[in-house]
Amino acid sequence: MQVTFSYFAQVRQAAGVETEKLALADGGDLAAALAESGKRHGEAFRTLVLDEFGVVRPSMLVLVNGVPAQRGGQRPLADGDEVTLLSAVAGG
Amino acid sequence: MKILLAEREIEVPPGTTLFALRDRVKPGADVLVHNGAPAAADRALAEGDSVVFIRRGEAPDREELGALMAARHTPGVHARVKRAAVGIAGLGGLGSAVAVALARVGVGRLVLADFDVVEPSNLNRQQFFTDQLGRLKTEALAENLARVNPYVRVETHAVRLTPENVPQVFGDVDVLVEAFDRAEGKAMLLESFGRAFPEKPVVMASGLAGYASGNSLRVRRLGRRIYVAGDLEAAAGPGQGLMAPRVGIAAHLQANAVLRLLLGEEEA
């Protein structure tokens, strides 16, 4: 199946792209998709998005089809799904 | 002849003077504004004139303030805004300014949450005063809002927001404003509210520190009902602190986005 990733701000800078399509095995979930994206874009990207245990960092906003995804990444994905990643920054 | 009295059109007999009208509609008014300027001397009124009478220290009653807002905003806009409830999570530089803006525009109800107290370092950007130092932000802001618009219903929660209590605190608002300081809190709020109420909009903020050009701040639509104000990058930290002008721009981008959403606009 194909999943589209959209990246914003520092995530976009680390990925070097705004948006991309990733091929995943059918039945894959969000964690697998994030791991695949991390493999593609190297250490700086992986460190920004995931902690040392491979868990999404608490400051990361992760949306699937425009709706916030539960931290933990076990949300199943389907062909055509869209994942959005933005690292929130401090200040308010 | 027709004139405007506190923005409402009324008929007055030709030859009516400013002082005579004052004595008829607001005896004892000590500030008279005629066609936008304070007037000390009596004068004859003319067709189309605009007049406001003020008794110093007296707040307009609910009907009068409502009429003024309806005149300024149009009756349709005012009616919709007056029916709305907006939640604001965090009452710092963003949240306090958003609250003031929405109170001024006549939002019917505000649900405010913050566990913190007013500190001296807040005064460079937050809508509090020196005589409020040490007080809970919820209490201090509620007092300030009452002075701005006493007819907004303000509900306060002096609590630290968690994934468990966010749905309870903000369950019946129409729109939620995320105004936290910490990045982790922003994500937590989005996740806990967005998952409980996926059809309700959330207006967040990220990237508003320092004094880079205000032109780089804007509102982006991130998801179906999720909007983010800011430049997404300028994090608060050493050498790049939060300052009133840029924080204020971001806050008012949020407030305007809220207003647009309440009025049925999809794009903030």
Radius of gyration of chain A: 12 Å
Strand element count of chain B = 12
Instruction: Kindly report how far apart the N and C termini of chain B lie.
Output: 43 Å
Low-pLDDT segments of chain A: none
* Largest β sheet strand count, sense and barrel closure of chain B: 7 strands, mixed
CATH homologous superfamily designation of chain A:
Beta-grasp domain
Q: What's the CATH class of the largest domain in chain B, please?
A: Alpha Beta
Proportion of beta-strand residues of chain B: 15-25%
The top-level CATH class of chain A is Alpha Beta
Strand order of the largest sheet of chain A: 2-1-5-3-4
SSE run of chain A: EHEHEEE
Which chain pair shows the most residues in contact? A-B, 23 and 41 residues
Strand content of chain A: 25-35%
What is the count of β-strands of chain A? Answer: 5
Q: Please tally the helical runs of chain A, counting DSSP H or I stretches of 4 or more residues.
A: 2
Spatial order of the strands forming the largest sheet of chain B: 8-7-6-9-10-12-11
In total, the number of domains of chain A comes to: 1
Short summary of the structure?
The complex is a heterodimer of chains A (92) and B (268). Chain A has helices at 9-15, 30-49; strands spanning 2-7, 19-23, 60-64, 67-68, 82-87.
Please, could you describe this protein's structure?
The complex is a heterodimer of chains A (92) and B (268). Chain A has 92 residues and is of the alpha+beta class. Chain A has a single domain (2-87), classed as Beta-grasp domain (Ubiquitin-like (UB roll)), CATH 3.10.20.30. Chain A is built from 2 helices and 5 strands; from the N terminus they run βαβαβββ. Chain A has helices spanning 9-15, 30-49, and strands spanning 2-7, 19-23, 60-64, 67-68, 82-87. Chain A has a 5-stranded mixed sheet. The longest helix of chain A has 20 residues, at 30-49. Chain A starts with a strand and ends in a 5-residue tail after the last strand. Chain B has 268 residues and is an alpha/beta fold. Chain B has 2 domains: 2-58, Ubiquitin-like (UB roll) (Roll); 75-262, Rossmann fold, CATH 3.40.50.720. Chain B has 8 helices and 12 strands. In chain B, the strands form 2 sheets. Chain B has a 7-stranded mixed sheet, with helices on both faces. In chain B, strands 2-1-5-3-4 form a 5-stranded mixed sheet. In chain B, strand 7, helix 5 (137-148) and strand 8 form a beta-alpha-beta unit. In chain B, helix 2 (62-73) crosses helix 3. Chain B starts with a strand and ends in a 6-residue tail after the last helix. The mean pLDDT of chain B is 95. The A-B interface holds A 8-10, 58-61, 63, 65-71, 84, 86-92 and B 90, 92-95, 178-184, 186-188, 190-191, 194-195, 198, 204-209, 220, 222-226, 228, 232-237, 242, 247.
